[in-house]
Amino acid sequence: MKKKSSILKWILIGAVACLLLAFPAFAKSSYQVHIVNNIGIWLLLSLGLNIAMGYGGQFNLALGALWGVGAYTAALLQTRLGVPFWINLPLGIIAAATMAALVGLPSFKVRSHYLAIVTIGLGEVINLFLVNQDELTGGALGINRIKPPSLFGFPIDTNERFYYLILIMVILGYLIGRQIVGHRIGRAFRALRDDFQAARAMGVNTGFYQILAFAISGAYAGAAGVLFAHWNSYISPDIFEFKSALIVLTMIMIGGMGSLPGSVVGTVLLLVLNEYLRVFERWQLVGYGVAIIVVVLFLPGGVVELVRRFGSLRQRWSAGLTKEKSNVEEERNVP
Amino acid sequence: MDITSIFIQTIIGGIGIGSLYALVALGYSMTFRSMGLVNFAQGSIYMVGTYFGIIWYRGMVLGLHVPYAAAFFIGLLCNALLGILLERIFRPLAKLDLMLMLLATIGLSFILDNLFTIIFGAEGFAVDSPLPSTPWIIYGIRVLPQMALLIGVSALLMIGNHLFLSKTKLGMAMRASAVDFEIARTMGIATNRMNALALSIGCMMSAAAGILAAPIVYVAPSMGAAVGLKGFAAAVLGGLGSIPGAIAGGLAFGVFEAISAGFISSQWTKAIAFIVMVVVLMVKPSGIVGEITIEKV
Question: Residue B64, Cβ neighbours under 10 Å: how many?
Answer without folding.
Answer: 13
